[in-house]
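Q: what sequence does this backbone want?
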């Protein structure tokens, strides 16, 4: 009702829209925010998206836009609003110019390692045991221990904006259909296996190109990431399903990234949103290592060929299981926005031929020794 009344009051007047938005959200977010202020900022963003010209923001409105935009970041990361409203805040953020991503670095997230998070070397429990998980499918059996070297994985799936930069700069045209239709901060979808590999190769060349300079500037956290890219002991590609599952559940072995119980406030699944959502709307569903969106939103390609468990131990057998040249089906992970709770579990496995393409299928990037130059 507030938006309806606001829309009538500002009809035909962009200036009035900005004035009302300013009144709804007069202050920047502080350390503590009230429910009243949260809803005011939420309504202000929706008002601007529906009534203001955000393609050409006048200079005297920039500070208002930025204040309201900063509020959307807080609303997405906080608990003041329910999931559906956080998703709407993320969509509004896309129209208000999402500041989390760096145009200088191909719209990857800002940060010391461009939001690639470290997964330490060590063993974890992969797969399922029906005595521990009544929802386990037979192809998740047996539960077994897998040791992996240290690797780094994207905090979020690859977004539409990131994929658009790849298309624009590389001239790649095979994987465009449908992929660029979503909002810029949503996960890209409609991507085939070879399209995802092409993006990873392109990104790998660029990360390697800046790695030497980053090593010289990096101290402490992130040093291993950049030094590995600089000396060729790490490379960029799609995660194996073992890497994906370890990043999703860690050594704790929970059914979901956040624990053992279902919770639609922590992930976009079971059609309670109805489509993809902006990355970062479900921080409460982060995995132990800090990855998000690993349950729901989009299914994600892995480099692993579909095969029975246990996952192979020897480097030779793993290389065969992860043969990038094979035309056989690949493992998909992560459920999707339309999947039920059983499909959102960390151990759930799906598969598709490398030519598979659909509106709930995307990918995330790994920086792994598997793609080293050695």
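A:
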């Amino acid at each position: 009702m507030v938006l309806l009344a606001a829309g009538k009051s500002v009809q035909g007047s962009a200036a009035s829209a900005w004035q009302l938005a300013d009144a709804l959200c007069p202050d920047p977010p502080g350390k503590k925010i009230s429910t009243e202020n949260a809803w005011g900022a939420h309504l202000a963003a929706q008002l601007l998206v529906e009534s203001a010209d955000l393609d050409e923001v006048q200079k005297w409105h920039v500070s208002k836009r930025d204040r309201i935009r900063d509020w959307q970041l807080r609303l997405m990361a906080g608990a003041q609003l329910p999931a559906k409203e956080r998703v709407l805040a993320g969509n509004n953020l896309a129209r208000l110019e999402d500041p989390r991503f760096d145009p200088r670095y191909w719209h990857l997230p800002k940060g010391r390692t461009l939001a690639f998070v470290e997964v330490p070397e060590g063993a974890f429990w992969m797969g399922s045991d029906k005595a521990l998980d009544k929802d386990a499918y037979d192809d998740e059996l047996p539960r077994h221990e897998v040791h992996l070297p240290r690797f780094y994985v994207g905090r979020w799936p690859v977004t539409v904006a990131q994929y658009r930069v790849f298309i624009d700069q590389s001239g790649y045209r095979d994987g465009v259909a449908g992929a660029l239709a979503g909002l810029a901060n949503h996960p890209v979808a409609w991507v085939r296996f070879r399209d995802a590999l092409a993006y990873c190769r392109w990104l790998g060349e660029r990360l390697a190109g800046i790695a030497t300079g980053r090593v010289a500037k990096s101290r402490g956290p992130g040093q291993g990431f950049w030094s590995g890219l600089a000396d060729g002991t790490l490379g960029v590609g799609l995660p194996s399903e073992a890497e994906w599952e370890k990043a999703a559940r860690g050594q704790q072995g929970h059914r979901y990234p956040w624990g053992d119980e279902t919770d639609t406030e922590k992930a976009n699944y079971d059609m309670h949103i109805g489509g993809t959502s902006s990355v970062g709307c479900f921080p409460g569903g982060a995995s132990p290592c800090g990855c998000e969106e690993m349950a729901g939103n989009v299914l994600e390609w892995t480099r692993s060929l579909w095969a029975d468990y246990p996952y192979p131990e020897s480097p030779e057998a793993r290389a065969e299981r992860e043969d990038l040249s094979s035309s056989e089906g690949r493992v998909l992970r992560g459920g999707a926005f339309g999947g039920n709770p059983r499909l959102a579990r960390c151990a759930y496995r799906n598969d598709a031929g490398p030519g598979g393409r659909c509106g709930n299928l995307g990918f995330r990037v790994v920086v792994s020794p598997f793609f080293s130059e050695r």
